Amino acid sequence: MKSLVILENFDLQNNIVSSLMSAGVDPQNLIPCPYKDSGLFLKDLSISLIIVEISPVNPNASFQIIDYARSSNELAKIIAIIHEKESELLIQLVKRGVSDLLSLPLNQDELIGIVKKLGVGGVGVSKSKSSHSGPKGRVVLISSYKGGTGVSTIAANLGFGLSDHPSIQKKTLLLDLANQSNHCSMLLDADTTFTINQICKSVNKMESSYIFSSCAFINPNLAIIGTDPGTEGLEKLEFEPLSRAIELFTECFDYTIIDLATHSFDERLLACLDKADQILLTTTIDITSIRDTRLYLKMIKEMGIDNAKIRILVNRYDCQSGMFKTKDLEQALQNPISFYVPNDYVACSNAAQAGEAISEHSPKSMIAEALTEVAIGIDSGALFVPPKTEAKKKGGLSGILAGLRK
Q1: Three-state secondary-structure class, residue 357
Q2: Is residue 132 domain-resident?
Q3: Which residues contact 217 (CB under 8 A, 6 or more apart)?
């Protein structure tokens, strides 16, 4: 059974999480979250314990969370953590059916005792990261060797599709490593809680149960971690801590989708290539993008990356233009093409303005259908998903091919 910890102040996180684990709560079923994300989880009827920190500044916001939790999940036990013992506050909490109260500073033994008394902790089944024996999640690296090919758009929408499509609905993490831009966060209107920079600094002390508190949640199945937008984000991410962080993510999520467009083979890219189960290379149909993609393919294959891991996605293609045939493009890249995503500037732009996934904002558009097929294809391991509509005009990439010849 799951335990939800709703905190205004994340300074309490370590004490509460360690206390719950000592009481036998399985860390894989422990979800710390801030106030703003609590609504995503409160309707989950598998949650048996809800711990709510009562805000000393705005207790009404805390009351609203408790009321919503009580109406959404009548069977869940609720523990309130209060900063001060005020009579009016205690009366309000009792009226709302709170199962028990804890006051700060937090007494871990008292919390352990309450959890055991309520019988909701799953006593005796606590698991640490070292005892994790379940299947690891899959890592999908979305990358390009040329800017402007739509890597972040593909990553954000793929993550949403894997988490939201009825036939998939996998627990998914978006890891936004696109320098300091955090484009995935912007495209899906998410305010990241912690950054990958902070996680990598303390990754050797972390357990998988702490990862959830480092995420911002876009929906119950989709979380996101970004890069520090300030000067800290300029610091180089080292191979070992980033590799360890990705391993932790795979213990918590079915999919880790990494957004990493790059112009150099640095330690950040090498760690992601090393951990990736699939590599989705994004290209567009122009001579510079195809040349750079072919160069990128050559380099990663020379590094010993298995070609079976590689999928190529052609973004912003125009199926009516007659510009290409699949065989011509595959000849230019010297590699098979797996996915095609059509050009739809209006749908992309409007979805970005709304802070929504394209399939959420324009579900009937051709690009939404294509992006859904990419998510299904990635989940099923498909090698090729054809364009929605074949080009009607005859033509090829003769000009591009000529430009690529030595």
Answers
A1: coil
A2: no
A3: 33, 37, 40, 41, 223, 224
Q: Are residues 23 and 161 in the same domain?
A: no
pLDDT at 402 over 70: no
Q: For residue 26, give the CATH number of its domain.
A: 3.40.50.2300
Predicted pLDDT of residue 127: 35
The residue among 73, 100, 127 that closes a domain is 127
How many independent structural domains does the chain possess? 2
**pLDDT, tens digit, for every residue of 315-372?**
998 765 555 667 788 888 888 999 999 999 999 999 999 999 999 999 999 999 999 9
Contact by Cβ (8 Å): 366, 376? no
- CATH number for the domain harbouring residue 215: 3.40.50.300
186 in a structural domain: yes
**Distance between CA atoms of residues 334 and 298, nearest Å:** 9
Report the relative pairing of strands 222-225 and 216-219 from DSSP bridges. antiparallel
Mean pLDDT of the chain: 83
Counting other chains too, the contacts that 123-129 makes at CB distance below 8 Å and 24 or more residues apart are 123/23, 123/24, 124/24, 125/24, 125/26, 126/21, 126/22, 126/24, 126/25, 126/26, 126/27, 127/26, 127/27, 127/28, 128/21, 128/27, 128/207, 129/27, 129/207, 129/208, 129/209, 129/248, 129/251
Q: For residue 319, what pLDDT is reported? A: 61
Q: Rounded to whole angstroms, how far apart are CA atoms 135 and 346?
A: 40
Whether residues 362 and 228 share a domain: the answer is: yes
189: left (phi over 0), alpha (psi -120 to 50) or beta: left
7 DSSP β-pair partners: 34
Q: What digits encode the pLDDT tens for the residues 183-213?
A: 898 999 988 767 898 888 888 777 666 677 6
pLDDT band at 253 (very low <50, low <70, confident <90, very high): very high
Q: Is residue 133 part of a domain?
A: no
